[in-house]
Structures are given as structure tokens and as C-alpha cells.
């Protein structure tokens, strides 16, 4: 749905796609409240995935439409920080509601409130932003051979995924970054519980990573505007690799907490810079489609990371699986250093 968000928003505008995403989410809390078998839960997750892909991708595109080249990193940092801090706050709130009132229905009513607010605000307050990108496209100067608005969807896909050095480097880095997330959310709690940590300590470790990630993006996005994207991305990938390496080699709450902070810091360094880099390099006429392709690869990393780390852990053990992903992350950072053009950053 990330991919289709880009193609549809270029064809029909941003706001209709955003509204479709919110509408897809409307049944989700009620399916979870009243669902009587597993098929209802699976169906709710499918609709939630459709909504997530359409709404979050479209809000990213709208911010890129609205801000100039010198503020892309700041805008992406604010966007991603708001999203992931919202995830953390909602996890705490629903955990409290579940403990106080049970798993159903009260915690999911909070989701219904969020959907109503998102849909209502989108209808009433948001204006279409695609016109901004069209105006920017008319004044856009780009050295790329393909810097025109006549690219097909397939051409945008291949350019973003493989052919353009910077776009392809960013796409693979985004995928590896979320591969880390799939690993962390899947295997870290199992590792910590197996080491005998209390539930309280496991909760702190689970919170430290996204908290550092969310707060850090308030600063790292703006830093990428000032210092450029490339080396912040490279440093962030290596920082994540170090955090994963410490997790694999250590045993105990203290070292694991330090590793979680490093992993969150590294993720904060790369997340807004990667999105801003896509906006820097892609032409405004097909930028939304390029963002959709990037997010297709990036969020695909969640699934790849969960499957890959689970298979490796079954065969070689959890520390070996984490060490392998650390090596992949370092290699990804090296690939960005070698392949991404150093002058592809705002302002230009």
C-alpha cells in the first residue's frame, strides 16, 4: 500500500488517498472488539495495513510538497517523531486500560477515537497539496537524465530501486534499518526473558529503543538539513551495528540498556535523513511515487527481518542471529558510503 499510495496520489491527488486510508481503518477496532475467531483478527490487520500504507505515506508526501529543500529533514524528523512517540504513548495507554478494564472492548475504543479524529481533521482542515509539487516541478533544476514528469510507474520503480545510485542506496538502507526492527521486536524480548530478567526490566529495555528513536528524530532531521544526508545515514547504520553487536555479545541489563540506546540513536539518525534524501533526489513530478517505492522497500524490512532472524535463531541461536544482522547493517552503511552521491542533499 505504500507503493500504491504514491501512484494513486500522483493520479488523483493526496487528500483523496489520505481519506481512503482513514476510511479503511474505520472497521478495525470493531472487528477486534467483536471478532469471534482468528479470521477476524487477520482481516483487521489487513485493513490496518492498508490504512497505514495509505495514510502515513500520504502525510509524508504532503509534507514534502509543502516544505522547501532546506527544511525537508526537519519536516521528516517531526513527522516520524510524532508517529513513533504516538506509538509509544498509545502502547502505554492501552496497556493501562487493558489492565484496568480487560482486553476488550475498552482499549480498542481508543483506536476508534483516533480514527474518528484523523478522518475528521482530514476532511475539515486539510487542503490538497499536489499543486505545490507541480509548481516546484516547473522550476526544478536537476542533473538527472530522467528529471522530467513523463516517467511510467515501472520506470520510477526501477530508478528508485536499482538504477539511480543515491535512490537505490537509500532504498536498501531503509530496508536494512527496518530489518533491524523486525529482529528487535521479535527476538529481543525472548533473549531478555531467557536471561532471567524481570518483566519490569524487559519493559524498560523494550521502551528505551523506540523512545530514543522517537525523541532523537526531533534533532537529527534538522541536522541532516544542515550537514547533509549521506554521512549521517552512514554513521547511523554503523551506530546501529554497534548496538546490535553489544546486544549479541553481552549478558545483563546494563549493557543491553546501553545497546538499546545506541540502536535507537542510530535509527533516529537514519530515519528522517533517508526520507529527506528521497525528496532531494527525485523530481517533484514523480517524487510521490518514488517515496512510495522507497517505503515499499523500507517497510518490507519488517517482514524480512522477522523471518530471517527467526530462521537464523532456530539454527544458530539468538546471539548469532543478532550478530549476523549487525554485520548486514554495517555492510549496508558501507554501501551507502560507496554508492550514494555526496552532493545529493538539501539545500541545492
From TrEMBL:
The keyword Membrane applies. It is found in: Cell membrane. InterPro entries: MFS, MFS_dom, MFS_trans_sf, MFS_Transporters, Sugar_transporter_CS. Residues 1-344 form the Major facilitator superfamily (MFS) profile domain. Keywords: Cell membrane, Membrane, Transmembrane, Transmembrane helix, Transport. It is a multi-pass membrane protein. It comes from Arthrobacter cupressi. GO terms for molecular function: transmembrane transporter activity. CDD domains: MFS_MdtG_SLC18_like. One of its GO terms (cellular component) is plasma membrane. Pfam families: MFS_1 (PF07690). This is Predicted arabinose efflux permease, MFS family.
Amino acid at each position: 500500500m505504500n507503493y500504491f499510495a504514491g501512484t494513486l496520489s500522483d493520479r488523483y491527488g493526496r487528500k483523496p488517498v489520505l481519506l481512503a486510508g482513514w476510511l479503511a481503518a474505520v472497521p478495525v477496532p470493531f472487528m477486534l472488539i467483536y471478532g469471534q475467531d482468528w479470521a477476524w483478527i487477520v482481516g483487521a490487520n489487513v485493513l490496518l495495513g492498508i490504512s497505514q500504507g495509505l495514510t502515513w505515506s500520504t502525510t509524508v508526501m504532503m509534507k514534502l510538497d509543502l516544505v522547501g529543500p532546506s527544511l525537508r529533514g526537519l519536516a521528516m524528523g517531526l513527522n516520524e517523531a510524532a508517529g513513533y512517540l504516538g506509538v509509544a504513548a498509545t502502547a502505554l495507554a492501552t496497556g493501562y486500560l487493558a489492565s484496568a478494564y480487560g482486553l476488550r472492548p475498552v482499549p480498542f475504543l481508543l483506536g476508534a477515537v483516533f480514527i474518528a479524529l484523523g478522518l475528521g481533521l482530514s476532511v475539515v482542515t486539510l487542503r490538497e497539496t499536489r499543486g505545490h509539487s507541480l509548481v516546484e516541478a516547473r522550476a526544478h533544476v536537476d542533473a538527472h537524465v530522467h528529471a522530467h514528469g513523463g516517467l511510467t510507474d515501472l520506470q520510477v520503480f526501477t530508478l528508485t530501486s536499482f538504477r539511480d545510485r543515491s535512490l537505490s542506496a537509500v532504498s536498501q538502507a531503509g530496508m536494512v534499518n527496518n530489518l533491524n526492527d523486525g529482529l528487535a521486536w521479535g527476538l529481543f524480548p525472548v533473549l531478555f526473558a531467557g536471561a532471567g530478567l524481570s518483566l519490569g526490566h524487559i519493559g524498560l529495555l523494550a521502551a528505551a529503543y523506540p523512545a530514543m528513536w522517537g525523541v532523537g528524530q526531533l534533532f537529527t532531521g534538522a541536522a541532516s538539513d544542515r550537514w547533509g544526508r549521506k554521512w549521517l545515514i552512514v554513521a547511523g547504520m554503523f551506530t546501529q551495528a554497534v548496538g546490535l553487536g553489544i546486544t549479541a555479545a553481552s549478558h545483563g541489563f546494563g549493557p543491553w540498556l546501553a545497546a538499546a540506546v545506541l540502536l535507537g540513536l542510530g535509527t533516529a539518525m537514519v530515519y528522517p535523513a533517508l526520507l529527506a534524501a528521497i525528496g532531494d533526489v527525485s523530481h517533484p513530478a514523480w517524487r510521490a511515487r518514488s517515496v512510495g517505492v522507497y517505503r515499499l522497500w523500507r517497510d518490507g524490512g519488517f517482514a524480512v527481518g522477522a523471518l530471517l532472524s527467526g530462521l537464523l535463531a532456530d539454527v544458530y541461536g539468538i546471539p548469532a542471529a543478532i550478530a549476523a544482522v549487525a554485520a548486514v547493517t554495517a555492510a549496508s552503511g558501507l554501501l551507502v558510503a560507496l554508492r550514494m552521491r555526496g552532493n545529493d542533499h538539501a539545500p541545492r
